[in-house]
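Entry type: protein chain
Record version: 2
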Amino acid sequence: MTDTAVAHPSGAPNYQALMARRLTWLFGGVVLLVISSIADILIGPAFLNVGDVVMALFSPDSAAPMVRIIVHDIRLPMTLMAVLVGMSLGVAGVHMQTILNNPLASPYTLGFSAAAGFGAAIAILTGITLPFLPIMTVPVAAFLMSSFAAFLVYGFARMRAMSPEVMVLAGIATLFLFQSLQSMVQYLASPEVLQAIVFWLFGSLLKASWTNVPIVAGIFVICILALLPNIWQLTALRLGDERAAAIGVNVRNLRAKVFIIVALLTAGAVAFVGTIGFIGLVAPHIARILVGEDQRILLPMAAITGALTMTLASILSKIITPGGVIPIGIVTAVIGVPFLFTLIIYGHRRHW
């Protein structure tokens, strides 16, 4: 299922063919992402005519005011948020798996998303608000708690020379800790507050707006720019710590830097939409099967795969119940399990 070398008297033509195949997958992913994003904008509980939606997108002045509001203020931000969150979690997942050399590593399984949920639950339970931006209280609380969980794991790993085994164990402990704290907050909450907490924990794109989409986009761009100088080191790290160190990679510093970037990506992604599972776990596996370990191709492929999965989940959340929208966190979990089973069955030649 992975890219393997084909016997050829000359290495160059073989490498060129391999890169052409990988770039073809990458281009195909971009095309599918564009199609799914357009479909996500066209589909919605308002049952708008396709022609009206297209007119509102490309000629808003000619569209009816209600159609323009639905398309530009509701559907378009939701689609853009789905793309950005999917890209963020896809990149975070692939690099979490890379630095930990663990196929089960992801922002969700290491407790970052659970910590964000706890932060949001505390903000909803206490009713505290930021003095100047009350609408940002819950996202800020989720972001800060997710960041705290990341630095908690980082602190334990730092004491043991950034060992990947310690990072995984600390992450699993963090996951159970914040899931337990979530349960405690839900137990203490009144029925009305409990409903708000559970809805946030489900994960929903309905929270997307033109206020928070640029924030998530900015965090994503900053993190990608920070990762680009370490592309070849991350590729070398897949050979093992010893081999990577032998060719000049500072494994400890690289692992620490990438871990912080992954934490920031995850916190920015889930702070506004709630808990989203399986994207950061499944998308990297699909990307690796398609394009291999070369980070120059793997990084954008993981981002595209994550975004494509999110937009498809968004479409599915709208068509399951006509006239309504199921929280996307539920849908990603439901479709993530068959994906994972498929990868287990057909991706068995992927060695870790």
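Comment: The radius of gyration is 21 Å.
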